[in-house]
Specification:
The complex is a heterodimer.
Chain A (H helix, E strand, L loop, with lengths): L1 H20 L3 H9 L2 E6 L7 E2 L5 E2 L1 H14 L5 E6 L4 H6 L5 E2 L7 H6 L2 E3 L4 E3 L1 E6 L13 E5 L5 H11 L4 E5 L3 H9 L5 E5 H9 L7 E3 L7 E3 L2 E3 L3 H20 L6 H4 L5 H7 L5 H5 L5 H8 L3 H8 L29
Parallel strand pairs in A: 1-4, 1-5, 9-10, 9-11
Antiparallel strand pairs in A: 2-3, 6-14, 7-13, 8-11, 8-12
Helix pairs in contact in A: 3-9, 3-13
Chain B lengths: L2 H9 L13 H33 L30 H34 L4 H15 L3 H15 L13 E4 L2 E4 L1 E2 L3 H31 L5 H19 L6 E2 L2 E3 L2 E3 L2 E3 L1 H27 L3 H10 L3 H31 L11 H12 L2 H30 L5
Antiparallel strand pairs in B: 1-2, 2-7, 3-4, 5-6
The chains are: A alpha/beta, B mainly alpha.
Chain lengths: ~350, ~400
């Protein structure tokens, strides 16, 4: 009965390895391979897109870099997987990526049914409409009977349907899978309206043949809190991703920037000292180096810097801080205390 | 030795009475088959239970319960009545019907176009034959997805906006929203005309049978096809007059952003249909050519010598033999067309895959969605196969 003994051995071994795998498996795996595999958007300017030299840029890209800076002390230890809206959750579930930073809206059904956890919101967005100026439309309420270009695989289709239904207006969707193909179709005049998250509309308008010919309507018809996500099963890793985002927000609130962070190390303010790891404790609690937050601010920047660099008023997108300002400036960005 | 002894020797089983089963090829074969079957069953069970367990561990929802929930998204075009308030099941049905619509019309047009090009390829006219050859080479060798993008771009780039729509003649408009044309307003007469048409076809079928029997008996021919055509036109017309000849039309009218009324053929549908038909017709043309060339030259000469007219030669001698060669590969091209229609999502036509993708995204139930896609395409393909196999059997050589 040599066979059965071998079988038993294999079964025991597999049980053992399965048991080990549950103890912080994602963090262990990430530390072992030495980099973070981040799922990002491949084609949204300002959020996740490679520039002409092939260097990844964007708010979501910087978020992934912050996680790498926290874990490895080196923001460059990230590899990027560009994902479509439809692949993104499956890629995270199947373990193809470690963290999803790809403008994904946090919703109840996604949180409960997809086996993943969203962390702190890194961008508050909302769905809007863009129209050619020559149509003379001033409000979304005038869009009855319009043909609307919609990107599939997001909450966008449902939001648009809800909006038109609640205002009892007719409409016709044209749903095309690829963002660039959809934009081309819209610019060629196949649709009267393009609908998507306001940030994406700004990004699409920036690449229009003539950006000045298009206007974004004032109505924002949905709440789109965009947040990074990790899969179930490793709470420690979830905490690290969560606090990597919060560290950027907290740094802005404390007035720490990538420029002045070295001076701030000498600050007498205990809040700053705790944050930067001068007073130790936070790093050990997260299972990280005490300089984790310092590394994030030094190498990536605080939230305000990241925002202005990627999507702010001085970029082609020209987006105001709005809801994404600190709570002290009337926005929603708020960090719990770092102690 | 007498005959009784010989018989008794023949009756005696010379093999030892207890053959171990692994020495008996028949029993061995059964054992192998049972083992193979068990192995397949085990692997499928393992895959299924493993997936199930993993989904559960990651607390991902499973099952088809979502089909009953409100879909909450609009679909651009639909054969049946649909709104965002309907269920996912309704939405998926709309998608399936859209796939059937484009495949069905596509298969018919492809067969016609492919046959014409295939025959042209064999034409003795040098120019016609070379044009057909060029068409086949060009279309077969460009990927279908590129062709679809090309036709779609032609539709949305080159046609004007609704406000500057082309109006070639009354009630017909052409713009980047599609081809919009007027249709007769709904009236009871239309149902009656439909029935009259069906009756005409049924009578034609009876006449054809009777005509053939009479020809077998007396040798006289009866022009059943022409009579049926005449009936198919005259009977519905009579029905129309009987209901007072209604002429009210539902003419499209530009209101706000778009045309209201009439029937719209969308650019997405047109581009998909055009792309599929032009691509698949090139393959069908080659099949038709091969089929016709498989009929011996002597057959044609013999038929001509008997005194049949060219039409009769084609109809009575060439086609019945060529079809035997044509039908099996033609079936496979029809299946290809149906499956290729799933590229619709690239150019925004709401086919089954597009609708299922949206469903997967809203519900997060990818495994169920993909399983549905596979089942539905399997069903489409098998139904086409069953029909074509039936037709193939009907056309097959009847051996006496």
């Amino acid at each position: 009965m040599k066979m059965s003994r071998l079988t038993v051995l294999v079964m025991i071994l597999s049980l053992l390895t399965a048991g080990f795998a549950f103890a912080g498996k994602d963090l262990d795996a990430v530390k072992k391979k030495g980099f973070i595999q981040a799922g990002v958007n491949g084609g949204v300017f300002g959020f996740g897109m490679p520039d002409e030299k092939g260097v990844w840029k964007g708010l979501d890209v910087d978020t992934a870099k912050a996680v790498a800076a926290a874990i490895f002390g080196d923001a460059s230890k990230v590899k990027y997987t560009p994902l479509t809206a439809q692949q993104r959750f499956t890629a995270l579930q199947s373990g193809e990526i470690d963290v999803l930073t790809r403008n994904a809206t946090r919703t109840l059904s996604r949180e409960t049914q997809l086996g993943l956890n969203f962390v702190t919101v890194n961008y508050y967005d909302g769905q809007g409409f863009m129209v050619p100026k020559k149509l003379g439309v001033k409000s979304a309420k005038e869009l009855g009977g319009a043909t609307v270009c919609v990107l599939p695989g997001t909450t966008t289709e449902q939001n648009a349907a809800d909006y038109f239904r609640s205002n009892s207006m007719d409409w016709k969707p044209v749903v095309i899978e690829s963002t660039s193909e959809l934009a081309k179709t819209f610019f060629a005049g196949r649709c009267d309206v393009l609908t998507s998250d306001a940030s994406q509309l700004a990004g699409t308008r920036a690449v229009a043949p003539n950006p000045k010919d298009y206007a974004i309507l004032p109505e924002i018809i949905s709440k789109e809190p965009l947040a990074p996500a990790v899969r179930h099963g490793d709470d420690q890793f979830r905490d690290i991703v969560d606090f990597a985002v919060l560290a950027m927000i907290n740094a802005e609130e404390l007035g720490i920037t990538s420029q002045n962070v070295d001076e701030m190390m000498k600050s007498n303010d205990p809040m700053v000292q705790r944050f930067l790891g001068v007073i130790e404790g936070n790093g050990a609690a997260l299972g990280l180096d005490e300089k984790w937050a310092y590394n994030i601010v030094k190498q990536v920047g605080n939230y305000g810097e990241v925002f202005e660099r990627n999507v702010g008023v001085n970029t082609t997108l020209g987006i105001e801080r709005g809801l994404n300002a600190l709570w002290t400036n009337g926005g929603l960005m708020y960090s719990p205390p770092f102690k | 030795m007498n005959s009784k002894d010989i018989n008794s020797i023949a009756d005696t089983d010379l093999r030892p009475s207890t053959v171990p089963f692994w020495r008996d090829p028949d029993k061995r074969a059964i054992v192998f088959q049972v083992v193979a079957l068990l192995l397949v069953a085990f692997v499928s069970y393992y895959l299924f239970s493993n997936t199930q367990a993993n989904l559960e561990r990651q607390s991902i929802a499973t099952g088809f319960g979502f089909m009953e929930k409100e879909a909450g998204f609009e679909i651009g075009e639909s054969v049946v009545e649909y709104s965002a308030a309907d269920t996912y099941a309704d939405a998926l049905l709309v998608g399936a019907l859209n796939t059937i619509k484009v495949s069905f019309i596509g298969i018919i047009l492809t067969t016609i176009l492919g046959t014409i090009i295939g025959i042209s390829r064999l034409s003795s006219n040098w120019l016609l034959s070379k044009l057909a050859a060029g068409y086949i080479e060009l279309m077969q060798n460009i990927p279908i997805l590129l062709q679809l993008f090309f036709w779609y771009a032609i539709f949305y780039e080159s046609f004007p906006s609704p406000r500057q729509a082309l109006n070639p003649f009354g009630g017909v408009f052409l713009c980047n929203r599609g081809l919009i044309f007027g249709v007769p307003e709904a009236h009871a007469a239309h149902a009656a005309m439909g029935w009259a048409f069906v009756i005409a076809l049924a009578v034609g079928w009876g006449l054809n049978r009777w005509g053939r029997q009479r020809q077998a008996r007396t040798g006289q021919m009866f022009p059943a096809v022409r009579v049926t055509l005449a009936l198919a036109v005259v009977l519905p017309l009579l029905a129309w007059f009987a209901y007072g000849a209604p002429t009210a039309m539902d003419i499209p009218e530009l209101r706000g952003f778009n045309f209201k009324g009439g029937v719209t053929v969308s650019p997405e549908f047109s581009a998909l249909l055009l792309g599929l038909v032009l691509y698949t017709a090139a393959f069908v043309a080659e099949i038709v050519r091969a089929g016709i060339q498989s009929v011996g030259r002597g057959q044609v000469e013999a038929a001509m010598a008997v005194g049949l007219r060219p039409g009769q030669v084609l109809h009575l001698v060439i086609l019945p033999q060529a079809l035997r060669v044509i039908i099996p590969p033609l079936t496979s091209q029809m299946l290809n067309l149906t499956k290729n229609s799933s590229l619709a999502i690239a150019i925004g036509y709401a086919d089954f895959v597009a609708v299922t993708n949206t469903t997967i995204n809203q519900t997060g139930q990818a495994i169920e969605g993909v399983a549905l896609i596979m089942l539905v395409y399997l069903f489409f393909s098998l139904s086409t196969s069953v029909f074509m196999n039936w037709y193939n059997k009907k056309m097959a050589l009847v051996e006496r």
